[in-house]
Design goal:
The chain is built from six helices and 18 strands. By secondary structure, it is mainly beta. Strand 5 and strand 6 form a beta hairpin.
Length: 359
Amino acid sequence: MKTTLINKRAGVAIAALVTSIGLSTSANAIVLAYESDPDGPGGINIGDAYVGPVQFKFVAFDNGTLYNPAGAPLTGGFSGSPGAGVAGGIAAVNALVPQIPATFAFPGTIDPGSNEDSWGVGRVTNIQTLGGVDVWSPLGKGTELTAVFHGEQDFHIQPDPSNPGFDTRVSGAGLRLDIWEDGTPGGPVDPVTTFNAALGPGGRTGAASYLNASDGTLVLSLASTAGFIHTNTGAGGPFPGFGGSATEYSTTFNFGSLTGGGQFYLNVIGGADQSIFNTNAITSPSAAFNFGAGVIPSQFSDFRGTFTSTPGQFGFDVTANDPLTGLAVPEPTTVLAGLGCMLPIFGTLFGRNRRRKIA
């Protein structure tokens, strides 16, 4: 797990960086720097590099399998505990009728012999501190962040107890989320190709690619992880059952109205900026779980995602708004990129003696 260094003098830190690595920059890195002044004169300034908790704000467009959209919720699949039950659960859910498979689907991550149950595309509207201050935006940084999510497969569904006649609780696994950066800060080397969801599901060109969403540089590749959402089937805790502790992706959804919401947890597995966000900053709520003997109750992930869903646009089933919450610990080269790597700025910073605040 990484730790953040705070309350360091900017001049000393940058002097040390210049000595150790010179003036090189990371051209592919997401630059996180304040785009407004959250505390007035004398504290944080516009353009100051940011380190700390972040939330990626998304607008996304999703295609998914629809289970009995004109009728009552179905029940099927395995608990996912032990883990071997997940593949069997996928097969059992695939056999449920009636269902409408996701269109333009590719093979899933857990069982490549059957197709995924959810995939989609989206763009990052902004990256903010937890207090809502922008530290990245397309206008502020001159780049675009787009996403392709894919590979998720449902392995357990059942009526939601709070509204059993209409809402379905779905548990899934195998979600992958790739985030791409298009454009280079401060220059026309890689001009932004604007994301366009109006291409609809037919804009998908591969399992992890979509026209205008998978161009540029792959900055983050993320994978869903289990152990954060449900307990083992029959165990204590706030949500026993519902797919068990193997659940990596959970949604409560009304397949008639195409509305709902859910959550998932993600670990960084690749991308040019993986070291910035691979922090293991999010721990599972182990106090609320009962994993049983021989299972380590405390687990870690890099991001937590939540989402709300409304009827889709452009031929997609659903439009979703979902923040990813995590922690950013930029590499030294990224901090220099955020500061512009300009000697006049270095000279100004060397003359200052103030603390860097972390929002």
